[in-house]
Amino acid sequence: MFKKFKNNEDKSSQVDTLDLHNIPKHIAIIMDGNGRWAKQRRMPRIKGHYQGMQTIKTITRAANDLNVKYLTLYAFSTENWSRPEEEVNYIMGLPVNFLNTFLPELIEKNVKVETIGFTEQLPEKTICAIEEAKRKTAHNTGLTLIFAINYGGRAEIISGMKALIHDLKSSDEMDIDSLDEATFQKYLMTANYPDPELLIRTSGEQRISNFLIWQLSYSEFIFNPKMWPDFDKNELVACIKIYQSRQRRFGGL
Ligand code: FPP
């Protein structure tokens, strides 16, 4: 049997008050506020990203403890390339640092690492670290930890549409009139995952910033005021509690 993560945060959290039968299967998170967290402490922005990487470990452990099945984290958007080169380079090194320090624990705890996004455009060192993590965790069956890296929802839809049109042109079995949402969904980078029931964005900003724009159609949105480096298991549990208090109607009554 694989061990569950155990940590001291359990004591003070509200885990006991959660309905364990209604834990979201898939939680998506926009990890925002690293820069502001650093600025508030008169530190360079990259310190915020470093601390943000540590929070990824904390939240991965917490999600695994809570039996969440999929955790998708928005690590780098297709728009983030416009940041200063030094900051982009630093962020691109973080997956290497993260996996150097955390991969053994991910393997031990049965976590599977996957990515969505145009990862082929990332620097070689970043691709290597991610590919190694994917390879070494490919057969794990616990939490699936999905990094959205060089990801953008609109670009994903265009790329899926191109592949679909290509298949339509070259197949005798497919026709335009029988296209439906389920078919299109298979062309998205998230084809293997259920849609997130819950989206969390930290730092108080209330936007989805081109993240999973198709997949979040019926998700519950929770905007948490903490900066990402300060987000922790207690905050995650509090977000799940709010989620559990909401009624999801999917357009019905
Ligand atoms: C948002 O904060 C954060 C990012 C754009 C980068 C987040 C990336 C990581 C934490 C590292 C990823 C690591 C792995 C393991 C894949 P911001 O800079 O937009 O904050 P601000 O809005 O306060 O300026």
State the gist of this model.
40% of the residues lie in helices and 13% in strands.
Layout of strands and helices, then pairs:
Elements: E1 26-30, H1 34-40, H2 45-65, E2 70-77, H3 85-108, E3 112-116, H4 124-137, E4 144-151, H5 153-170, H6 181-185, E5 198-201, E6 220-223, H7 233-245
Parallel strand pairs: 1-2, 1-5, 2-4, 3-4, 5-6
The chain binds farnesyl diphosphate.
Task: Provide a descriptive summary of the structure in words.
There is one protein chain. This protein is of the alpha/beta class. The chain has one domain (21-153, 196-244): 3-Layer(aba) Sandwich (Undecaprenyl pyrophosphate synthetase). It is 40% helix and 13% strand. It has helices at 34-40, 45-65, 85-108, 124-137, 153-170, 181-185, 233-245; strands at residues 26-30, 70-77, 112-116, 144-151, 198-201, 220-223. Strands 3-4-2-1-5-6 form a six-stranded parallel beta sheet, sandwiched between helices. The chain is globular, with a radius of gyration of 19 Å. The termini are far apart. Residues 8-12 have low confidence and may be disordered. Residues 31-36, 49, 52-53, 56, 75, 80, 91, 94-95, 98, 147, 149, 203 line the site of farnesyl diphosphate. Homodimer. Catalyzes the condensation of isopentenyl diphosphate (IPP) with allylic pyrophosphates generating different type of terpenoids.
Which topology does CATH recognise?
Answer: Undecaprenyl pyrophosphate synthetase
From the spread of the alpha carbons, the general shape counts as globular
CATH architecture: 3-Layer(aba) Sandwich
Please state the structural category: alpha/beta
Q: In terms of per-residue confidence, which ranges show pLDDT below 50 for 5 or more consecutive residues?
A: 8-12
The biggest sheet, with number of strands, parallel, antiparallel or mixed sense and barrel status, is: 6 strands, parallel
Radius of gyration from CA coordinates? 19 Å
